[in-house]
Description:
Blueprint: E1 5-6, E2 16-23, H1 33-44, H2 46-49, E3 52-61, H3 63-71, E4 80-83, H4 86-91, E5 93-95, E6 106-112, H5 116-120, H6 125-128, E7 132-136, H7 141-147, E8 151-155, H8 161-166, E9 172-176, H9 180-187, E10 194-196, E11 200-203, E12 208-212, H10 216-235, H11 237-253, E13 259-262
Parallel strand pairs: 2-3, 7-8, 11-13
Antiparallel strand pairs: 1-3, 4-12, 5-12, 6-9, 6-10, 6-11
Amino acid sequence: MCCLGLTAHAHDGPVTHLVFPRYFSILDTSKGFDWIVLQAVMERTSAKFGPFTLSASPEPVSIPRMLQELDRSDGVINIIARATQRDLEHQFQPIRIPIDRGLMGMRLLLVRKADLPRFASVRTLDDLRHMSAGQGKGWVDTSVLSAAGISVVESPRPGSLFGMLEAGRFDFFPRALDEAPREYDVIRKSHTDIVIEPTLMLRYPLPRYFFVRRNAEGDRLAERIKAGMEMMIKDGSLAALFHKHKGPLIERAEIRKRHVIELRNPMLPPETPLQRSELWYRP
């Protein structure tokens, strides 16, 4: 795949080459919001830190393969964007600014049409515990749902979860507020029994960060990315990008019409900047 961006060589320093993972997904994740933000951050810091290239991995990779690549000092992938957890922050270096302002922790439910009456009567976590959820293998949400007492069915191939839901292998597939409508638009014709449940939303703290290696290269990347994101927070350009790309999806979700069930995230690191209100989206 071609590069997303290459800065002008006005700076005499070395070129920083960034390669991010392409995922197995029904969506084109190579053009996702994570990388739009990273492109803007790198452009914003080019005067101080120098030119850069930004490109996707040649082939889609699984989550285990992605983590293996980042763990190797000679791995092709040298930056990822993931929902955080303690083990991940121990292994890699997080830039603790939520890319999506915490939207990943706001979950809409994909369900079977026939089950809409069942979900319409759900008002508490105890009610939800009578249902089972579907998740991809290795997703952080599995720990959150399991800790809440919800039965979870995992699949190593996330794309298969829609068919598994339709076949009755589990009862709901929780997707981030900005993922659910986009994925539904893709699968609605091939999985006609699946709909977005209109009355509920799960919410738990789940920041999505950029992660780099814990080495000298990673230290330089982390310094640059953090500096750029802080600049964009201060001047409002990061919030502007968020509203441009996420605003229509947030409106479509009609959050104010939904009953919110709060869950605890037992995997949330204590260093999570929950006190910085400017980093988080609150309806």
